Every structure is written in structure tokens, then in C-alpha cells.
């Protein structure tokens, strides 16, 4: 099998590079070992809309990394525009933040088509394509247009929202139609898969039977593959990281005080404002925790040229300073707030130094920080994870303390409870969580998805039967109903 993995952002394989985001950091070890070609953006752009895609190839483990310069004329419309100002807010159920234009959508489609042309260079007879994430919803359809018959899988790292939300993106019907060119679509949770299936039924008038949709593209299977981490490797990294200068300086600075840690991209989906309000409330309601517990919040700047992100950055900075002004002392700062990225190695050590991990997004596909925090703990004296019930990770990590990130009082109470949880309960919860992390490892996720994609066999277009009357008006006769292949 010749595997080609595609994602907008890629990782370069250096252990202490600042965190590149959930997807890239998670994929790096498995792609490196698989011998795959990993294709993604170089971060540079190139002039000339019709330019031939050129890839800079580097070795990556047993395989290769192919970096594409994306077309300059369409990059902003694709990345800052349609992907991150229309799709990202919609996928995270923030219809109020959707900013969309036809030009941005055209650029998004252009970049998808450009990447598809570039991928042809990596196609061999037994190639499997595995496309990652919301940047490339229409890439499979572009590959089919170019005559590619190989199996093509797609994994969505974000949530898929309720129909009423995705309906706010004017081109959603086009995109969902294009997505049916994939043989297999993987989701993080059952809710995401059900929301997508509801959209296929209602917007395209197609049936989803036993997780399979049949369209003019052929059969598309919808399945759930929760992404994981290599928990034991992360635990070893955390144990080793104690001697890292940043980690030992942090530990020395605490003087017996307890620490809670939050590590997030500066993104409105991460619930930072609510989290800081919860700490504010906790210190007001439990004054005994003043000087006894502080928060280290790492908030890595992200997508800074987009207005919503700029606004959030100012809002969080103002709030942190208000809370520090309200509760701080000449020799005590309640919230240490850092706007930079750290490598996985240092982060592992920082997580292990904190008695509480706060992962409280308003909505999140999975959230691998939650899993990393658990894996980094010492089994002898583990910290406690406080986790939003709206993160995909909450489906597996139900032995964490689950919170509603909109309930500030509830979060304040739960964080205080986490800070004082007795050792035997912490150990018991940690053991349960580690068992789950080991069962759903990143290696297992990778293997399960590829097995399912290979099981689906080569891409075969299907014959078209007439649609039921109710949906025929919407779609014409290009789509068909079918007998499911999966039981
Ligand atoms: O699915 C979310 C994701 O693609 C993750 O890889 C990461 O959390 C983030 O988005 C990266 O965003 P960007 O590439 O825009 O920095």
C-alpha cells in the first residue's frame, strides 16, 4: 500500500519545535513510521493562479514530507477567509462569527483543486489517499474530477454541528455534495456523525442506511474514529522533562502553592473567557485558595489577522489583568499568562507540575491537551483533569471532573474540588483514564481508519436510480437511493 496523507498544516519532526496544533502534532509519529508521503502547505505562497504545483520534498522518518507553495491570489481567501472565517465558526457552532463571501468560497475551491493537481504526482497504482480536516472538504471531489479511482478517505478533526448551524454557510450544500466523493468519512464522535447524516438526509434528500450514503459518486461510509495519543510515550517524556530549565524554574517558583494549568490556542472555541471568570469566582468564594492555588494559562496566538481572534486576544488580556489586579498581592500573581508556544517535551513537564488540568472548551472536536495532561501525570501522585462536557474527549474521559463551560459557578466549585481531591480518588480516576487512553491510542486510530478505508475497496461509481419524489426537485436525477453494503 502506498499512502498519501494530506493536511493543511504539517509538522517537521523536531521534538522541541513549538506546538503545531493538535492535528499536526498527533499525526507526526504515526506518519513518520508508516512510510507515507505527507503533503501540506509550506507556509509560503507563489504567484500565478495557473502555476504548476511544485513540492519541496524532505525525508520524514521512513517516508517523505512534500511541502506545497499555495497560490498567492487565493491563499487569504482560502485560509483566513473561507476555512477560518466561515467553516471554523460554523463547525464550532458560532454562527454569530461567520464571515463569508463568494470570493472566499471560490478561493477555497481553487486551493482544493490546486492541491488535487499536486497530489497526482504522488499517485501510484496502489495509492490510498487520506485527507485531513475542514480545509479540504472538496479535495476528494477534485481528485475524482481528475480521474482518480483510488480509495480516498477523509477525517474531520473538528465537530460537525447541528443542521441549523451549518445551514448558515451559504455553500454548505455544495460542500456536503462534494464530500460524498470520499469513500470513508471519519468523525471524532457519534454526535458529529449523526449531525452530518442529518444534513445529508435533509439537504441532499439522500438516505443514510447503516452508516452508508449512496450518491452519484458511489458509496460513502460514515464512521467514528476518536483520535488518541501515545500515552506511554507521553508519560515517559513528562517524567524526563523535570530537568528542563522551564519546568524546574516553574517548580521552584511555586513554594508549595498548588497549580492549575490551561494550554490552548487563542481561539474563541476554547472557552478562555469563561475559564478565567471561573477562577475569578473561585478566589472570591474561597478566599483560602488565595496564595494557595494559581493558574498558569498558556494561550498560543493563532490566526491573528482575523478580526474575531484579535478581539479575543484583547479581551482575554484585559480580563487576566483585571483578575490579577483584584486578587493579586505584591508577592503573588494569581494568573500567569503566556502568549507563546512550547514544544511537546516542555509541555509534558509543565502538565506534570500542575495538580489540576483545566480543559474547558465551549466546543471541541476531541482536544488532545486533555489526553496529554492525563498521560503526563505521575501515577503515584496524579493531578486531576477538569474537562468540558462539550469536548469530544469527554466521551472517553468520563472519569475526569466534567463541567459545563457556560456555568461559571459550577466550574469554580469543580476546580476548587479538584484542588483538594484526596490521593486515593485521584489515583483511582487516573488509572481509569489511562486504561482508556491506552485502548484508544493514536496508533490504533491510524490503523483502524486505514483498515476501514481498505475494506471499502476500490472506488466504483454506481448506477443512478430515480430519487424519491420529495427530494427529486432539489437535486435533479444525479443522486440515487441504494441498498446498503454495510450491516
Ligand atoms: O482541527 C483543528 C486543527 O486543524 C488542529 O490541527 C489544530 O488544533 C488547529 O486546527 C490548527 O489550526 P491552524 O493550522 O490554523 O493553526
Describe the 3D structure:
By secondary structure, this protein is of the alpha/beta class. The protein has 2 domains: 2-227 and 443-480, Rossmann fold; 231-440, Rossmann fold (3-Layer(aba) Sandwich). The protein is built from 17 helices and 16 strands. The strands form 2 sheets. Strands 3-4-2-1-5-6-7-10-9-8 form a 10-stranded mixed beta sheet, with helices on both faces. Helix 1 (22-34) links the parallel strand 1 and strand 2. Helix 10 (272-285) crosses helix 14 (408-419) and helix 12 (344-352) packs across helix 13. The longest helix is centred in the middle third of the chain and has 21 residues, at 307-327. It is globular, with a radius of gyration of 23 Å. Residues 463-487 have low confidence and may be disordered.
Chain-wise SSE layout:
Elements: E1 2-6, H1 22-34, E2 37-46, E3 55-60, E4 63-71, H2 72-91, H3 102-119, E5 127-132, H4 139-145, E6 152-155, H5 163-166, H6 172-179, E7 184-187, H7 190-204, E8 208-209, E9 212-215, E10 218-224, H8 231-240, H9 245-253, E11 258-265, H10 272-285, E12 293-300, H11 307-327, E13 335-338, H12 344-352, E14 356-359, H13 368-376, E15 384-388, E16 401-403, H14 408-419, H15 423-439, H16 442-455, H17 469-475
Parallel strand pairs: 1-2, 1-5, 2-4, 5-6, 6-7, 7-10, 11-12, 11-14, 12-13, 14-15, 15-16
Antiparallel strand pairs: 3-4, 8-9, 9-10
Amino acid at each position: 500500500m502506498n499512502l498519501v496523507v494530506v493536511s493543511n498544516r504539517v509538522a517537521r519532526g523536531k521534538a522541541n519545535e513549538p506546538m503545531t496544533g493538535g492535528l499536526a502534532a498527533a499525526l507526526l509519529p504515526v506518519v513518520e513510521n508508516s512510510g507515507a508521503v505527507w503533503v501540506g502547505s509550506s507556509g509560503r505562497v507563489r504567484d500565478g493562479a495557473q502555476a504548476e504545483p511544485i513540492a519541496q520534498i524532505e525525508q520524514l522518518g521512513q517516508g517523505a514530507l512534500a511541502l506545497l507553495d499555495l497560490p498567492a491570489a487565493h491563499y487569504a481567501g482560502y485560509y483566513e477567509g473561507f476555512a477560518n472565517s466561515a467553516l471554523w465558526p460554523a463547525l464550532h457552532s458560532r454562527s454569530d462569527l461567520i464571515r463569508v463571501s463568494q470570493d472566499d468560497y471560490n478561493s477555497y475551491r481553487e486551493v482544493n483543486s490546486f492541491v488535487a493537481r499536486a497530489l497526482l504526482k504522488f499517485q501510484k497504482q496502489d495509492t490510498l489517499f487520506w485527507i485531513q480536516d475542514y480545509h479540504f472538504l472538496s479535495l476528494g471531489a477534485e481528485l475524482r474530477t481528475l480521474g482518480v479511482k483510488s480509495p480516498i478517505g477523509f477525517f474531520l478533526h473538528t465537530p460537525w454541528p447541528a443542521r441549523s448551524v451549518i445551514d448558515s454557510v451559504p455553500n454548505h450544500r455544495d460542500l456536503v455534495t462534494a464530500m460524498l466523493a470520499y469513500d470513508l468519512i471519519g468523525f471524532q464522535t457519534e454526535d458529529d456523525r449523526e449531525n452530518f447524516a442529518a444534513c445529508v438526509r435533509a439537504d441532499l434528500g439522500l438516505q443514510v442506511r447503516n452508516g452508508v450514503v449512496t450518491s452519484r459518486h458511489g458509496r460513502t461510509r460514515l464512521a467514528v474514529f476518536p483520535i488518541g495519543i501515545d500515552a506511554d510515550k507521553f508519560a515517559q517524556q513528562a517524567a524526563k522533562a523535570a530537568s528542563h530549565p522551564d519546568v524546574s524554574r516553574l517548580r521552584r517558583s511555586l513554594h508549595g502553592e498548588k497549580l492549575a494549568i490551561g494550554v490552548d490556542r487563542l481561539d474563541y472555541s476554547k472557552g478562555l473567557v469563561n475559564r478565567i471568570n471561573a477562577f475569578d469566582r473561585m478566589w472570591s468564594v474561597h478566599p483560602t485558595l488565595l496564595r494557595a492555588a494559581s493558574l498558569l494559562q498558556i494561550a498560543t496566538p493563532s490566526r491573528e489577522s482575523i478580526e474575531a481572534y484579535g478581539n479575543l486576544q484583547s479581551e482575554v488580556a484585559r480580563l487576566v489583568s483585571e483578575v490579577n489586579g483584584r486578587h493579586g498581592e505584591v508577592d503573588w500573581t494569581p494568573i500567569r499568562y503566556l502568549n507563546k508556544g512550547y514544544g511537546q517535551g516542555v509541555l509534558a513537564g509543565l502538565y506534570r507540575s500542575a495538580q489540576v488540568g483545566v480543559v474547558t472548551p465551549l466546543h471541541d472536536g476531541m482536544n488532545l491537551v486533555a489526553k496529554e495532561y492525563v498521560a503526563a501525570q505521575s501515577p503515584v501522585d496524579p493531578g486531576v483533569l477538569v474537562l468540558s462536557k462539550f469536548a469530544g474527549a469527554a466521551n472517553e474521559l468520563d472519569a475526569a471532573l466534567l463541567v459545563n463551560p457556560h456555568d461559571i459557578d459550577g466550574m469554580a466549585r469543580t476546580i476548587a474540588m479538584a484542588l483538594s481531591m484526596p490521593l486515593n480518588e485521584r489515583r483511582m480516576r487516573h488509572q481509569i483514564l489511562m486504561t482508556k487512553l491506552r485502548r484508544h491510542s493514536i496508533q490504533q486510530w491510524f490503523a483502524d481508519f486505514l483498515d476501514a478505508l481498505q475494506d471499502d475497496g476500490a472506488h466504483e461509481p454506481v448506477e443512478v436510480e430515480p430519487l424519491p419524489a420529495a427530494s427529486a426537485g432539489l437535486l435533479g436525477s444525479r443522486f440515487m437511493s441504494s441498498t446498503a453494503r454495510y450491516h
